[in-house]
Design goal:
With 243 residues, the protein is mainly alpha-helical. The chain is built from twelve helices and two strands. The chain is 50% helix and 3% strand. Helix 7 packs parallel to helix 10 (197-212), helix 8 runs antiparallel to helix 10 (197-212) and helix 8 crosses helix 11 (222-230).
Length: 243
């Protein structure tokens, strides 16, 4: 999977979010909604209120290791999260479906982890300079890519992973500069208001890289360090000078 990282650069450069979502339908149609429709509706009824919603068992391709991505996450973040759904749809009119349309099979797609990260980056691009859509999901997926595709004892897979992180970083770097800093409330708490949207994204990306490239002792993995130095990516991807 990581041996094809150059393909993903081409996707980021040339595909729209809509087109890439449609392209990934080639993995097979999701046959059921993400959440069970009755459980979802009951979640919002006062006399039936629960803290959970039953998820449907989309076994057909989930057993093959596919993720499921919600198309509507270019409008609402974390549509697989009950808390996020509450925040987005709790105040909808009673006669509405409380956003259930976003959970229907036609608005879901199977994807591998790298494709999933790319979908989130395309969301970031198409909503920029607004940065509260897509990016948190992207950051969470990067560590999962490492866990699934990188063999800790295989230098080649580590090199390919660094190439992928570089492609992701360069994509963020390519976003335009904007004097308007459209930060979410959470972002405003965690970063300087003087940063531009792109600077904020790059800062968070480098911080995430420093976390996922650590070894089991909490230090930068020595193999990754050597690769970063060899490729002149140490300061770029980690945001700190060589120590």
């Amino acid at each position: 999977m990581l041996s094809s990282v150059s393909i993903y650069k081409n996707v980021l450069d040339k595909c729209s979010y809509e087109d890439y979502f449609k392209k990934l339908k080639a993995h097979g149609n999701v046959k059921k909604s993400y959440f069970h429709p009755i459980s979802y509706k009951n979640h919002f009824l006062d006399n039936y209120r629960t803290n959970n919603i039953v998820r449907e068992r989309n076994f057909e391709n989930r057993q093959k290791g596919w993720d499921i991505h919600h198309k509507g996450e270019n409008e609402y973040p974390n549509l697989n999260s009950v808390n996020a759904i509450d925040g987005a749809f709790e105040d909808c009119p009673k006669e509405s479906d409380y956003g259930f349309k976003y959970q229907k099979p036609k608005n879901l797609v199977y994807c591998n982890l790298i494709e999933h990260a790319i979908l989130h980056l395309l969301i970031v691009k198409e909503n920029y300079p607004r940065i509260d859509l897509g990016f948190d999901g992207y950051l969470g997926i990067k560590g999962r890519i490492r866990d699934k595709y990188v063999d800790p004892s295989d230098l080649d897979t580590k090199e390919e992973f660094i190439k992928l992180l570089s492609i992701f970083y360069d994509f963020i770097e390519s976003l335009g500069n904007s004097p308007e800093n459209n930060l979410s409330k959470q972002d405003k708490k965690s970063t300087s208001s003087k940063l531009t949207p792109k600077e904020t994204l790059l800062k968070r990306d480098r911080k995430n890289n420093r976390t996922i490239l650590k070894d089991e002792n909490g230090k930068l993995d020595k193999d990754y360090k050597e690769i970063l130095i060899k490729t002149n990516k140490y300061e770029t991807l980690l945001g700190k000078k060589l120590d």
